[in-house]
Amino acid sequence: MHKNKLNQDNKVEAKRVAILNSALSEFIKKGFNTTRIEDIAKQAGVAKGTIYLYFNNKNTLFEEVIRQNIKLVLNTLNTTIQTNELKAQQPEGHKTNAHELLQNIMLNILGTLQTTNAGDALRLLIREGLLFPELTAFYHQEFITPILNQYRYILKKAYDNKEIKVKELSDYPQILVAPLVFGIIWQTVFSNKEPINLEEMLKVHLKNIFIK
């Protein structure tokens, strides 16, 4: 009985994931306004009515697409910080400086954006965000704010440890986020004309901030 319920739960979750992935694909290709629920259902391999068993309407489906992918990036952020803390607690552990920590965070987040649907979700939010002020506010609260708070904390410690020379940098942690967002937009629009190595660009950006 328990096994049957587990199998049923797995099937339900598999359908939900298929719907979310198909929705993201359709939203990216057609935009929110012109995407139809029946097209999402067809790509997901489910009946149109099945989607309404999971999501009330197209708006809530769009919102969940963004939320699910926010979680991927936040998990990357938290895992990177926790890994750094665990290494530092080891008897002969390497204590990561601010430069290394920020580079690890930024490169790991970039990796998540490039290897999962999170990058497409970010592009989608940039394109459609004005249509969803509540979703944009949620994205800012759940994704942007935690990252900026972590960056502020790290930059303040970096200044105290004389790793950076500009104290006010911690007041504007957006400076650290900007190249990543710019890079995603650039690769979306100009990658076929002038591709850039985002990893190397982020490393160069950090080198300009930290004292050698």
Automatic annotation (TrEMBL):
Q: Does the keyword DNA-binding apply?
A: yes
* Example GO molecular function: DNA binding
> Which Gene3D superfamilies is this protein grouped with?
Tetracycline Repressor, domain 2 (1.10.357.10)
Q: Which PROSITE patterns match?
A: HTH_TETR_2
Sorted keywords for this record are: DNA-binding, Transcription, Transcription regulation
| Feature: DNA-binding region | 36-55
Show where the HTH tetR-type domain sits. Answer: 13-73
Q: Which Pfam families match?
A: TetR_N
Q: Can the keyword Plastid be found in this entry's annotation? A: no
Name the UniProt record assigns to this protein: Transcriptional regulator, TetR family
Species in which this protein is naturally found: Desulfovibrio litoralis DSM 11393
Read off the lineage from the record.
Bacteria, Pseudomonadati, Thermodesulfobacteriota, Desulfovibrionia, Desulfovibrionales
